[in-house]
């Protein structure tokens, strides 16, 4: 593996490559975003969402996502999207990610405008979370694994 293949690539850079999806916007999957023989699942879902969210302008906020991992994704990834239905306040968008061996991810996203509700959450007590760790307590995984793109607390494994 060359030094260039292990250079970290930011998630934002990969999402910018994907753009609205389609063959005009391929993403070359770097080794640093894989887990075993496939893309890190979170990256696959993010690429599918990125493509789906650009299918039309002025989509309402995302409300629901159904994600199905159907096969390994590696090599050059492309997204294909389709508007399944667009109503006044809701849009149903299908997004699929293809790799060198074909379909690897199938997603359905529901974008919908806010609606008024009688449900109240203001009386729910917020949980007491510990303080966020400082930089000295954070580490990432080895550069050849997708964990190199994340910071986490715990025992360092190199």
Can you give a write-up of this model?
The model has no long low-confidence stretch (mean pLDDT 84). This protein has helices at 11-18, 41-53, and strands at 27-28, 34-35, 38-39, 62-69, 76-86, 90-99, 102-112, 138-139, 152-153. The protein has a domain at 4-113: Thiol Ester Dehydrase, Chain A, CATH 3.10.129.10. The longest helix has 13 residues, at 41-53. The protein is built from 2 helices and 9 strands; from the N terminus they run H-E-E-E-H-E-E-E-E-E-E. It has 158 residues and is of the alpha+beta class.
Entry keywords:
alpha+beta; 13% helix; single chain; 9 strands; 158 residues; Thiol Ester Dehydrase, Chain A; 2 helices
CATH architecture grouping of the domain at 4-113 = Roll
> Which overall shape is indicated by the principal axes computed on the Cα atoms?
flat
Class based on secondary structure composition and strand pairing? alpha+beta
Task: Write the element-wise H/E pattern from the N-terminal end onward.
Answer: HEEEHEEEEEE
Which ranges are low-confidence, i.e. pLDDT below 50, for 5 or more consecutive residues?
none
Widest sheet, order of strands: 1-5-6-7-4
Report the span from N to C terminus. 17 Å
Oligomer: single chain
According to CATH, the fold-level topology of the domain at 4-113 is Thiol Ester Dehydrase, Chain A
Helix content: 10-25%
Overall pLDDT level: 84
Number of strands: 9
Instruction: Describe the largest sheet.
Output: 5 strands, antiparallel
């Amino acid at each position: 593996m060359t030094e260039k293949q292990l250079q970290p690539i930011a998630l934002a850079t990969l999402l910018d490559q994907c753009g609205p999806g389609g063959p005009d916007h391929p993403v070359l999957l770097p080794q640093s975003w894989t887990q075993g023989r496939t893309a890190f699942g979170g990256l696959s879902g993010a690429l599918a969402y990125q493509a789906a969210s650009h299918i039309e302008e002025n989509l309402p906020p995302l409300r629901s996502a159904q994600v199905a991992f159907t096969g390994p994704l590696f090599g050059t990834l492309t997204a294909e999207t389709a508007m399944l239905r667009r109503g006044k306040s809701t849009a149903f968008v299908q997004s699929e990610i293809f790799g060198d061996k074909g379909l690897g991810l199938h997603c359905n996203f529901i974008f919908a405008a806010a609606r008024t509700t009688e449900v109240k959450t203001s009386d729910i007590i917020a949980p007491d979370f510990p303080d966020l760790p400082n930089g000295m307590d954070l580490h990432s995984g080895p550069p050849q694994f997708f964990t190199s793109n994340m910071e986490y607390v715990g025992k360092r494994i190199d």
